């Protein structure tokens, strides 16, 4: 055994234990700088920025899926010769982090206000330093080959500099403004949130019909509402100007019931005449549509809610109640005064906070907004003209729908943790200054300045992630080389939150798209298809899975069998199957290593290749080409499933078995050549599998003779034209089909495995040479005692059992196996199977829709399948007729 192989076997335990391999290998990779990237003019760049997990976060299955997909792409491109950079980092997550710190303070008997803003920020940074590295340590457990030397944080100095610059630039161009507008207010979080952060939940409620009387009682208008407590803030009633029912009432007034306030009846086309009574109560301070109507008709604004979800002093006797308490008491008051006409059950979508799921209260508030239209138009065009492509393509429409209906973005949050808004106010002269650097005093009067108390929406800084992480606004070498980045891989739930904002900011700040491809994956759900959540108790900790099965098994289970953009169901059985795959690979590799002999492994001698060698080399070429095309088109599931099938079935189950006679034989030249083929196929198989299962492939590859120092930096396999053997491979496929059929026959007839029988293969002159060359394998793999190959059915017993494949028919004497009745029963099943296949193919080819839409190649394949099925059916029917005679 050669020195390299001997050492590899001595160090190779009998069983594979990922817990002894994964951490060691990852530490070695990181220590040797294999993940690090520098601008390299001799290589094309390939850059991915990680969707930054919250600094408060802990690894969950969504992260595991997200990071696995990105790591597959990065490892693949690295092996393809690209200068790959995967930028890691974390998001400061304003609301989530502030909640954590507030909870910590509460346990200590303190509050935010007790320690003040500076004290709170000190506590928040301390919390970040203590817990912020947890998620990145966990990402390492997944095998993420990020450039950790370039790790970023959305509130680090560089990212903060970019945030301030973009804010100030947009402000000076009039694209950021401050004003009193309707916002989505979360009473629990105590802050405004954007439209994208509102989740709608269908909830049962009621529709209250309320009568508004004229001051003198001569007329009335009835309106319906799902929020009767907002009647406290009504400042008008709106009707459609074209509605004849109310034409004479426009300009008159009614009295708000219970409250007693006189309000006008106004006309506005927002009101639908055929919906309800055709009259709508208008509460400009607590409904976005009412706010717009109020702006057009000049209605005043009356905010009656507090920021913590109570009724304020304008609510009269209801002041101090929560909105829920007020609703109940106000409805009782409407009943008492006779203004409540009726109550109907009503189910509708209710906006809730994405973070705490509290019902959102639309309310008017002074906030900072981005005037989004001029940013949205070029971002929309970038996708329309193909500069950015969504995979799967159907998510393009999701993006269009959002961007074409986008509203101004509320970017201020009433929090302390985050990027503080760079706006400064002078109380002496009323001046407001927005600048990148804090002024020492008011430039107008020299007075003292105070900074705006609010911070920016977390997504404002995240939207700059693709260029701020590369050094912008400085003109860095990284920015010039890696931007635009290549691919963004993320879930479909971030199209509104993050993807749209990155595109807008990238085009605004850099004048170019932030990435060329958006690869969308689905969500990880439980086995019943439910979203994983704490409330359902169905969450799975990836670290527990890794501890039990290894990270390669988890990664494989998350990738296999699930198409891009499709939700997947987590199944322990899939992870167990992946672990079995690891064991299969390891055991096969160990077998190969144990049979490499003492001589160095040389090059493959093409002149000594037999039909089995040619078949496996041809199949390797095909799998390389197919898997490469699949990964390039982001069909990662198809790629890994083809690689799996090739390694498990064709290499391990078939080729290694076919190699054993030569490995154990006396012909030393044949041994050397089959060893060379085994190493060539195993080495390239590990390379193909490496992006998906990085650890076991590294462990095996680095033991192989002639391997590089690490599989990570080896070249991605390419199909080798000198190993193109299509004819021989087709013949071998036919032989394998024949072996499978013989095995099935023997199993159906309960023939003992040790019982061997003579096999006669009847073939054509075109297939004769293939059959004769493949005969020894048929002998070994099909339980044959002897093999005969002939061109006719001479001397074949009429009661012989037969099987049919593309290279011929195999006959086994009946008296060596079973009785005729069972054989006829089996052939009848075969006939039904081929009749079904003929019917299926005919159905497709007779379908006008299929013929019109399917590619010509697919149609040709179906015709070929039909011809083959029809031929097989004829042979089976002939055999049945022959046996019945």
Written overview of the protein:
By secondary structure, this protein is an alpha/beta fold. It contains 27 helices and 29 strands. The strands form ten sheets. The protein has a four-stranded antiparallel sheet with strand order 6-5-14-16. It has a four-stranded mixed sheet with strand order 10-11-9-12, covered by helices on one side. Strands 27-26-29-28 form a four-stranded mixed sheet, with helices on both faces. A hairpin with a 5-residue loop joins strand 18 (423-426) and strand 19. Helix 18 (572-594) packs parallel to helix 20, helix 19 packs across helix 23 and helix 23 crosses helix 24 (765-781). The chain is elongated, with a radius of gyration of 36 Å. The two termini are 60 Å apart. Mean pLDDT is 91; it is low at 1-7.
Shape designation:
elongated
Strands in their spatial order, largest beta sheet: 6-5-14-16
Strand content: 15-25%
Based on secondary structure, the structural category is: alpha/beta
Radius of gyration: 36 Å
């Amino acid at each position: 055994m050669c020195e390299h192989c001997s050492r590899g076997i001595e160090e190779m335990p009998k069983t594979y234990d990922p817990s002894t391999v994964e951490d060691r290998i990852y530490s070695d990779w990181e220590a040797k700088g294999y993940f690090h990237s520098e601008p390299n003019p001799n290589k094309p760049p390939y850059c991915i920025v990680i969707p930054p997990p919250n600094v408060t976060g802990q690894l969950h299955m969504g992260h595991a899926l997200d990071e696995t997909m990105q790591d597959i792409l990065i490892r693949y491109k690295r092996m393809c010769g690209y200068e790959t950079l995967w930028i890691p980092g974390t998001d400061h997550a304003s609301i989530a982090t502030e909640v954590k710190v507030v909870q910590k303070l509460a346990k200590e008997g303190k509050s935010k206000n007790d320690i003040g803003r500076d004290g709170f920020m000190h506590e928040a940074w301390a919390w970040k330093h203590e817990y912020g590295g947890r998620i990145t340590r966990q990402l390492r457990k997944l095998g993420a080959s990020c450039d950790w030397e370039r790790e970023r944080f959305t509130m680090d100095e560089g990212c903060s500099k970019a945030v301030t610059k973009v804010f100030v630039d947009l402000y000076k161009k009039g694209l950021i403004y401050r004003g009193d507008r309707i916002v989505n207010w979360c009473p629990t979080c105590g802050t405004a949130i954007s439209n994208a952060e509102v989740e709608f939940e269908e909830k049962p409620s009621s529709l209250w019909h309320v009568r508004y009387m004229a001051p003198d009682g001569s007329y009335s208008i009835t309106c319906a509402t799902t929020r009767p407590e907002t009647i406290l803030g009504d400042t008008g009633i709106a009707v459609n100007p074209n509605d004849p029912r109310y034409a004479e009432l426009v300009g008159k007034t009614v009295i708000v019931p219970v409250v007693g306030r006189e309000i006008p009846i106004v006309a506005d086309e927002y009101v639908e005449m055929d919906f309800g009574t055709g009259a709508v109560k208008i509460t400009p301070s607590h409904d976005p549509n009412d706010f717009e109507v109020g702006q057009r008709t000049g209605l005043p604004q009356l905010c009656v809610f507090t920021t913590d979800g109570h009724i304020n002093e304008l609510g009269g006797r209801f002041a101090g109640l929560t909105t829920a308490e007020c609703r109940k008491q106000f409805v009782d008051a409407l009943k008492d005064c006779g203004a409540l006409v009726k109550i109907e059950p009503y189910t509708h979508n209710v906006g809730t906070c994405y973070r705490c799921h509290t019902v959102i209260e639309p309310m008017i508030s002074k906030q900072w907004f981005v005037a989004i239209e001029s940013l949205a138009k070029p971002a929309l065009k970038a996708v329309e003209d193909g500069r950015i492509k969504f995979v799967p393509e159907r998510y393009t429409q999701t993006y269009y729908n959002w961007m074409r209906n986008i509203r101004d973005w509320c970017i201020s949050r009433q929090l302390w943790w985050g990027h503080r808004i760079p706006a400064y106010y002078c109380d002496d002269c009323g001046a407001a200054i927005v600048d990148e650097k804090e002024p020492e005093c008011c430039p107008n009067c020299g007075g003292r300045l105070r900074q705006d108390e609010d911070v920016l929406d977390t997504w404002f800084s995240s939207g700059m992630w693709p260029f701020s992480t590369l050094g912008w606004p400085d003109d860095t070498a990284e920015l010039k080389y890696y931007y635009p980045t290549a691919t963004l891989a993320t879930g479909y739930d971030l199209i509104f939150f993050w993807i749209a904002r990155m595109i807008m900011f990238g085009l605004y700040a850099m004048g170019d798209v932030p990435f060329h491809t958006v690869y969308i994956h689905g969500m990880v759900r439980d086995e019943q298809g439910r979203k994983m959540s704490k409330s359902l108790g169905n969450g799975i900790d990836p670290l527990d899975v890794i501890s039990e099965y290894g990270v390669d098994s988890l990664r494989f289970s998350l990738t296999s069998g699930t198409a891009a953009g499709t939700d997947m169901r987590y199944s322990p059985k899939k992870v167990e199957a992946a672990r079995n795959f690891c064991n299969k690979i390891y055991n096969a590799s160990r077998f190969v290593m144990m049979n490499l002999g003492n001589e160095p492994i040389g090059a493959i001698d093409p002149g000594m290749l037999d039909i089995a060698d040619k078949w496996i080399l041809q199949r390797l070429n095909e799998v390389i080409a197919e898997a490469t095309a699949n990964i390039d088109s982001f069909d990662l599931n198809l790629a890994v499933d083809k690689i799996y099938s090739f390694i498990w079935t064709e290499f391990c189950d078939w080729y290694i078995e076919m190699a054993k006679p030569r490995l154990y034989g006396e012909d030393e030249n044949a041994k050397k050549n089959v060893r060379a083929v085994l190493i060539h196929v195993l080495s390239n198989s590990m390379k193909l599998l490496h992006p998906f299962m990085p650890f076991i492939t590294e462990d095996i590859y680095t033991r192989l003779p002639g391997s590089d120092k690490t599989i990570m930096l080896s070249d991605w396999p390419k199909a080798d034209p000198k190993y193109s053997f299509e004819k021989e491979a087709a013949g071998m496929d036919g032989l394998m089909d024949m072996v499978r059929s013989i095995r099935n026959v023997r199993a159906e007839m309960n023939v003992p495995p040790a019982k061997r029988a003579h096999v006669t293969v009847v073939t054509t002159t075109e297939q004769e040479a293939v059959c004769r060359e493949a005969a020894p394998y048929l002998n070994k793999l099909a339980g044959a005692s002897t093999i005969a190959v002939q061109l006719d059915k001479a001397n074949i017993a009429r009661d012989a059992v037969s099987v049919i494949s593309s290279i011929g028919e195999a006959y086994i004497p009946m008296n060596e196996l079973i009785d005729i009745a069972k054989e006829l029963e089996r052939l009848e099943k075969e006939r039904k199977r081929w009749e079904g296949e003929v019917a299926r193919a005919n159905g497709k080819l007779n379908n006008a829709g299929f013929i019109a839409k399917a590619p010509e190649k697919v149609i040709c394949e179906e015709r070929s399948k039909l011809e083959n099925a029809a031929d097989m059916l004829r042979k089976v029917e002939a055999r049945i007729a022959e046996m019945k005679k």
